[in-house]
Amino acid sequence: MPAVKTKRMPRAVREQQMLDAAVQTFGRRGYMAASMDEIAELAGVSKPLVYLYLNSKEDLFSACIRREAKALVDAVRAGARPDLPADRQLWSGLTAFFTHTARNPDGWSVLHLQARTHGEVFAGEVAAMRAEIVAFVTQLILAAARDAHRDPDLPAAEVAGLAEALVGAAESLADWANATPGVTARQAAATLMNFAWAGLGDLMHGRRWVPPADDEGDQQGSTSPVR
């Protein structure tokens, strides 16, 4: 009886399978503790095949960083619809950010914890992703200033500082949200909107940014008294 031939898996699919296993391993065990044997076993392939496809542990880690960074940036850009007012764009972008980091905690760990502490090459990959998000947030802040008709010409240094502060706060809040049971992406986004958009002054006076009731609808968020 002739042997049954199994269908060969396409290289691209096999490679993604290896990256999935690597992200999980790096995210949970850390770069130094993770082993290629462990990654190969989790991916269901031989260790020589991992080396054949991705060359080395360093190259594998870099590939994980690039994939996870692209996925995060794509999620934020897709979430912040350009047809919405500036505050709704920021709200939608933040919600997409926190949703993505909550659904992909290992990928977020690779980007925010592991890559930054294991060499300039890895840190540079993450810095490039972060710079893209900061540039995107900068444009949202400029759009908000134009919408407010108050100060459409904010100093460039001030806008840059605000964007850096907002992105830094989002990164820290994502760590907190992932480590705190019961915190949803929507709650995390609302917390940051109240801190960044309404401001501590308004919060102390009982006014906060109210998330839209239906994220798919056209209702706009607003700053209003707490009921």
From TrEMBL:
It holds the Pfam family TetR_C_46. Residues 12-72 form the HTH tetR-type domain. Signal peptide: none annotated. The keyword Transmembrane helix does not apply. InterPro entries: DesT_TetR_C, Homeodomain-like_sf, HTH-type_TetR-like_transc_reg, HTH_TetR. This is TetR/AcrR family transcriptional regulator. Keywords: DNA-binding, Transcription, Transcription regulation. Residues 208-227 are annotated as: Disordered. The keyword Endoplasmic reticulum does not apply. Residues 35-54 bind DNA.
